[in-house]
Amino acid sequence: MILRQLCKFKSPSRRAGLVYIKSCTRQQSRPSSDLRSADVERIRNFGILAHIDAGKTTTTERMLFYSGTIKQMGEVHHGNTVTDFMDQERNRGITITSAAVTFDWNDYRFNLIDTPGHIDFTMEVEQTLQVLDGAVVVLDGSAGVEAQTCTVWNQADKHKLPRIVYINKMDRADADFSMSVESLESRLGANPIALQIPMKSNGEKGISTVIDLVTMQLLEWDRKKSKSINVSQIKGELLEMALEERIRLVELVADVDEILAEDVIQRESLSNVVPAELKAAIRRATIKKLCVPVLCGSSYHNVGVQPLMDAIGLYLPSPFERPKDYLVNLFKDSFCARAFKVRHDSHKGAVTFMRVFSGNFQKGQKLFNVRLQKAEQSGQLLVAYADEYEEVQDVGCGNIAAVTGLKDTFAGDLVTGNLSSANSAKAKLAKLKNIDSNEAEHILASSGSSMEPVFFCSIEPPSQSAQKALDKALLELQREDNSLKVIFNQETGQTILGGMGELHIEIIKERIVSEYKIDVDLGPMQIAYKEILQDAIKDSHQFTQKIGSSQSNVSLVMSLEPQDEYIQFPLEMDKSGEDAAKLSSLPPRIINALRKGTAAGFRSGPLLNCPVVGVKPVLHSFSSTYGTTDTAIIAAMTQCVQKLLKTGGTRLLEPVMQMELIADAEVLSAIISDLTRRRGNVVSIVERGKQKVLIAQTPLSELLGYSTELRTMTSGRASFSMEIHELRPMSQVETNTAIKRVTGFDPSF
Ligand code: GDP
């Protein structure tokens, strides 16, 4: 079946051996109309994932150029690439928000989502992965697998995404193809299968020739003429080496594909497998995630990108071939889509990007938002070409659409055609999972990914009159990015931003200044600590509230117990105590109010008003007088939890980061002694070429402004990346230091 599909899609020009030159010279600025009514089997929804600076943006720019979507290539260092089109991205040369780009390559429709590589934007990567069918992972050929590669790889694993690896920067003198392939195995436990061999040419810097082991052809690029490739037969000594490597490739593929293995056994030969057979086997194994095809190139020098594009069509799955999504099963043919990105366009307003999982999205149709339980009228239906859009009449299942006119839909939301289709999916899910309908609704409504901020800081408008405009700007930015948290502190009257890193918050500020023209100020950056309970505690609490003529009285007995898992525990009812029978017959309205009160009580701990985690709350007794309001029950419970937390005492829990530093050997000892001063732990040091790779674990609070300090300390001879490793309880002394740092007061006096 798959072989037949491949034959169907095979471009006639491919047989002539001129595929790249021919397809590249096709200057087509928009996808052809026949693909607009897209044959789902030809759609490839994929993302490009990488450690920062590996070359995602440069590679994307080449893809757009070769597909004819753009006429000229931009460069990251010139700040004129298509996918990094926001000012902040162009100024910093990094990718911040995923941009969806649609283009055609040969007979395929590519929907490419360019994802940010910086740890601060991991949430965006998560949201993107949910709507993709496959991914291209770009490695820097001089570094192999890096810290952030591991993060995105694990995320892709979580979403069961088949992958292709592209080893970029093979022009660099220190590039090492074998080391990079091996690092996929040793660091990620992947099964990499190299489909190409890069050739270092004499005299010229880096590579411009690649041996294609599948087709057994020599591909040569003329770097000056960025589109042309000379395809020729492999000859002489090179042929001998290539034949050996091909046999090795066939062996590796046969190990993970039974059909090829059987063919090889029947023929009793590994050497006469034709390219079409091999491609089909690689496709089957890649889609089953039994192997990862590896290609190479030098995107900056225009080498290797067209075969990568071919490989995306050949080896990554179509929407039909992704592991059956539960949404498709629930909705069958009726419409459902997941929003994965909201971008604010100065002319069109909010543009919401969606992946259509089932049914058809018709222009101007009403959408029912499952999280909000309300309908919204959609406006224009668009296909996105980075910062340009084209209006279309409908977008079919498996495809990516951009929609205007939605005011309340956030990234991560699920939308359906109407309430009844949402309800019938909810009922099916409840039956399938044997859960109640509220829980089913919660599963459907949530995007499944949420991240806690690790940094906080206050944000101030230039004057009171600008507060309203700031609130609106923050609301819009939150719609685009749900890892941005905005909290209003009632006590201080301040607006607090919570983000995934210093860079994340700084960029939010820059966007408010440049896009919304509000000259905001940020307060000092603070770590998002959490609080944990020191000692188990049980106590009672009485609450009385008189409003007008009505009086509310609540009486509670509750206990709090510290746990080892640092999560929020739901309120439990004592099932064996004196009041067990009374508690088990409480009406849902009261239980709901009690739960809300408990959650509110844990929202701010007694030490630094940080969220309290790792505490099991148990209610032993509850009574209230007639006419007691829900608000009074919530308030009573909140007070009770806070009173118990104060008596039991809390300690701080701090985020500890896993750091990967790459440094010249001469600066290593300075880095290590500096890290020790910062309460850091060195986990390992390994050599990578002439450099050292140091893995360390350091509390985040010690790393504020670290990138600038590292640059100064090492004169730019070291770089680092980091990700959250764990939340770690602080000692009493450390807790006191942190409190002094935040409040200015030393609690030990
Ligand atoms: P991203 O952060 O992964 O999007 O990486 P970029 O595409 O922004 O590239 C990071 C830097 O590496 C830029 O200065 C690029 O010009 C450079 N770069 C990208 N591809 C190559 C390549 O093939 N060879 C070399 N030597 N540099 C490259």
Notes on the structure:
- The structure is a single chain.
- Strand 17 and strand 18 form a beta hairpin.
- The radius of gyration is 29 Å and the shape is globular.
- Helix content is 34%, strand content 29%.
- The strands form seven sheets. An eight-stranded antiparallel sheet has the order 16-15-21-12-13-20-17-18. The protein has a seven-stranded mixed sheet with strand order 2-3-1-4-5-11-6, sandwiched between helices.
- The chain has five domains: 2-30 and 41-315, P-loop containing nucleotide triphosphate hydrolases (Rossmann fold, 3-Layer(aba) Sandwich), CATH 3.40.50.300; 346-445, Elongation Factor Tu (Ef-tu), domain 3, CATH 2.40.30; 455-528, 2-Layer Sandwich (Alpha-Beta Plaits); 531-648, Ribosomal Protein S5, domain 2, CATH 3.30.230.10; 652-743, Alpha-Beta Plaits (2-Layer Sandwich), CATH 3.30.70.
- Helix 15 packs across helix 16.
- It has 749 residues and is an alpha+beta fold.
- Bound molecules: guanosine-5'-diphosphate.
- Residues 50, 52-58, 75-77, 93-95, 117, 168-169, 171-172, 298-301 line the site of guanosine-5'-diphosphate.
